[in-house]
Amino acid sequence: MLAEPVLRPHAEQEYAAELAALAAGDDRERPPGWRLSPWAVTTYLLGGAAADGTLISPKYVGARRLVEVAIATLATDRALLLLGVPGTAKTWLSEHLAAAISGDSTLMVQGTAGTAEEAVRYGWNYARLIAEGPSREALVPSPVMRAMGGGQIARVEELTRMPSDVQDALITILSEKTLPIPELAGELQAVRGFNVIATANDRDRGVNELSSALRRRFNTVVLPVPATAEEEVDIVTRRVAQLGRSIGLPESAGGIARGGGADEIRRVVTVFRELRAGITEDGRAKVKSPSGTLSTAEAISVITSGLALAAHFGDGTLRPSDVAGGITGAVIQDPAADRVIWQEYLETVVAGRDDWGDFYRACREVAG
Fold first, then answer.
1. How many whole angstroms separate alpha carbon 364 and alpha carbon 94?
2. pLDDT at 143 over 60
C-alpha cells in the first residue's frame, strides 16, 4: 500500500535525489560525521551541478560568502546563530543545512514562551520512573540530546522566544559538549559531528535577549533582507512555485509563468519594499511605514493565497483582485494607525502609477 503524500516533506525527503547525486560524486574532504563536504553543501544550498550532471536547484538566494561562513562555522566546534528580521529565510536555511550535513533536519526544538528546559535537555517517562526509579530506559531524550548521541545537527528555532533560564541550558552543551545527567550520576558526551544551529530575531515582541555567556558560544551570521527588488522577486517566485506544487494548487506554475502572475509578484514586492524602507522605489517620495515587518515570507504568503484564489475561483492567472485582500491584511496589523498609512500610500503613490489602475481599484475596494 502506497503511503499518502505528505503536505510538506522534510528537505532531506524532497531533495533526496540531489543530495544522493552530490554525495556520489563528492571526493572532497568531509568533516567528521558529515554526509557531504563543505563544498558540496554550498552547491546544494546555492545551486549548481553534481559530478554526474544532475542539476542542483538553489535553496537560498543570497551572498555566497555568507553561506560559506555559516558552513565553515559548523565545521568547527562553534555553534551557529542565524540572526535577522522575520522573513529572511533563517528557518529555511537552517533546515537545509541540517539536511545536507546530517541527512536529518527533524532534530528541532521550537522556541516559544512556554518552552520548558526538558525540550533542550531531557525529560522522564514518569510511569517507568515511578515503577523503576531513574534509569536510561526511563529517560526521554530531547532532540538536542539525540543529536549529541548521533553526531548530528540540532536546530533551535526562535531562540530568543525561549525563557532565559531555558536558553542557558545550552551553555554547558555548547561549551563542554556534554550533557550532565545528575539523576544517573553520569553524562552524555557529544559524538563528533554534533553541532547546533539556532535562529533568532530581535524585532518581534516577546523577545528574550541572549545572555552574554550564551552569545559567546555562537558564531553569528546576520541574514539580510534581499538587496534588490529583482532578487526578492526571484525568491518569491521560486518559493511560491515550490509551495504551489507541494499543496497541489491547480495550474499554480502556469499562473506564475503567465505575464499577469509575474506582474502581480513584482507589484507586491515593490509595495512591501517601499513601505519597509519608507521611501518609493525611485527615491522621490517618502512614505510612512506600518507596524508590520512586511517580510519576504509575507510576500510569499500573499502570492500563494492569491494563486489559490486564481486557481479555484478564476482562470488560473494571478490578477490584482486575487492579491488585494492578502496584501491589505499584511499591511494593516494595527487597525487604526496602519489603515491610515495604507490608504495614504494608495492615494499618493499607487494611484499615480501607470498600469497600476487595476491594482489600485482592487486594493481600494478591500480597504474600504
1. 39
2. yes
pTM score over 0.85: yes
Q: How far does Cα 208 stand from its chain's mean position?
A: 20
Q: What pLDDT does residue 253 have?
A: 44
pLDDT tens-digit series, residues 79-108: 999 998 888 899 999 999 999 999 999 999
pLDDT band at 3 (very low <50, low <70, confident <90, very high): low
Question: Are 183 and 161 within one domain?
Answer: yes
The pLDDT of residue 141 is above 50: yes
pLDDT over threshold 80, residue 363: yes
CA–CA distance, 271 with 306 (Å, rounded to integer): 16
Is residue 176 domain-resident?
yes
CA 267 – CA 264 distance, rounded (Å): 5
Which residue range forms the structural domain that includes residue 104?
11-222
For 316-330, the pLDDT digits (tens) are 888 999 999 999 999
134: domain CATH number is: 3.40.50.300
Any idea which residue has 491547480 for its cell?
250
The pLDDT value given to residue 257: 45
